[in-house]
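Re: your question from the hallway

Yes, I did run it. Sequences:
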Amino acid sequence: MNLASYLFGIVTALITLFIVIELLRRRRLRERHAIYWLVAGTISLIFGIFPQLLVFAAGLVGIAVPTNLVFFVSIFVLFFVCIQHSSELTALETQTRVLAEENALQEMRLRELEEVVRRMPPAIGVDTSSGADS
Amino acid sequence: MHAALDRTLIVMPALNEEASVADVVREVYEKLPGVKCLVVDDGSTDNTIAEARSAGADVARLPFNLGVGGAMRVGFKYAVNNGYDNVIQIDSDGQHDPSGVIKLLEALEVTDLAIGARFAGEGDYTVRGPRKWAMRVLSVTISWVAGVKLTDTTSGFRASGPRAVRLFAEHYPAEYLGDTIESLVIAARSGLRIQQVAVSMRPRAGGTPSHNPWKAATYLGRATMALTIALLRPRLPDPEPGVAVV
Ligand SMILES: Nc1nc2c(ncn2[C@@H]2O[C@H](COP(=O)(O)OP(=O)(O)O)[C@@H](O)[C@H]2O)c(=O)[nH]1
Ligand SMILES: [Mg+2]
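Structure:
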């Protein structure tokens, strides 16, 4: 590995971390969603700075080519984040549906209420047409 | 009767508190004549709503769980839309003694945000290990940001004056721990004055706080992260531009 590829790994990890932190800072990303990217960025930064760690870790789990460990972990992280997104999407869909249901029911209640008010004798009912005493 | 009471909205976030909410509401009306009490039900699956209404509270029902922060946002918006100057948050589990509200309101005469803090030891469980360190880190850091000594930063017994109500109606954080940690950071960095008021708190009505070390460590991690991010974020515009910050 030459100096260029060594720096390349570190710089990429730093850029990733910078983007995630900046989005967090501007309230464009919630902590809950940022945590995986932060962890992944930090791990790649550590392995970027100490490549020997990667060789060591690959040896530990019996992977002959250390870069394969990188691919494996990357795919695992992406897979995990995808699943989390699917689950969040499901939750959001449920919430939207509940909101739509409540909205429909509330509109019906309002309509019924308006109907009752309209049928009330003028003295008791709210007479919106005259616009008096304001 | 305290003069500010009829301009004060008591907001009680509630999640499955059918056993205690009615008693708390009744106690609030008894000890604080003139206040309005809004219970924000956060998707409870028990009888919380009916219980709260039977005791005379107004109830805002959220269709699904948004957390304490989300519930408080409803309270702050209601206060702004209906002309209440002060918002006081009280737990619906009966841990907060409504008599403490008078002290908090008195503090609001000279400050923007008053935190009801536990007396050391009184009615309180002892916290140990990571959770204790977390609370220590939180209070030291937030005290530093706020410029006053705060010992109980996770207290849910708080009073917000007009400036805080306006700020929070727009910017109250709804994330995990946002209602305790980030709200204080936001307030302090927007130039609001924060003060701690000693109040007595009652022991939990039911259940015991967990001493599970794994949970406590997770709490420490999440609290530290929430605090770090809150500190990194740009300060929000002052809710009252033109008014000098003391
Ligand atoms: N709106 C809302 N209120 C909650 C939620 N979780 C707890 N609460 C309420 O917040 C208050 C404090 O909760 P509690 O579990 O007693 O927290 P602790 O006093 O800090 O141990 C109680 O009034 C609960 O009913 C939630 O998810 N949403
Ligand atoms: Mg409690």
